[in-house]
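Quick illustration, no need to memorize.
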Amino acid sequence: MIDLSQQPWFADTEWLAVPDLVEKTGMSVSRVRRLFDEHALVGTRLGGPLRTPAVFLDDEGQPRGDLRGTITVLADNGFTDDEALDWIMSDDDSLGTSPIEALRAGRKAEVRRIAQGLL
């Protein structure tokens, strides 16, 4: 099991709990929870409630559209939520940055190609 709190990116990450997501997205609590079930968001329960990085929302405060497919690919490859979260947030040598930053830069196809090759 991975300890996300020991990862280099963890301390610098702004985290949003479900109530924060309800406020930012304007969605109901049940709809926000479904976002996690549908792999539109991935989160962790480290230290209490389910939380997700704020960077997983776009400029309009909605879940990034390019994140869902990446999370699904990782889940299909057997990644747990914590493992997927760690991979998305950690620097990747082949990308030269973290997958989330590559997604934010419009490099969705490249991120997914690399994610598909992970075992």
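Helices lie at 18-25, 29-37, 67-76, 81-89, 99-104, 108-116.
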